[in-house]
Amino acid sequence: MSKVTVFSTTWCGFCHQVKEWLKSKGVEFEEIDLEKDSTAAKQVVEATKQMGVPVTKIGESYIVGFDRPKLEAALKSEGLI
Description:
Blueprint: E1 4-8, H1 13-24, E2 30-33, H2 38-48, E3 55-58, E4 61-64, H3 68-77
């Protein structure tokens, strides 16, 4: 499994933005569509205690929303950028 996973939906604008941002940084990631994977959706809610998207898992950290400073810090701590 990739060190970076983006949990998203097709209708979420911020989901598209976070994926494009990761691509622009050269970061490979796995994408999981929460509309199609209800088990993953439940796991994300349990892990984050929130129902928002996108959720980006970097290593063992979950980041809710498109929070660039938190994403960059997590990517740096995992040695991905």
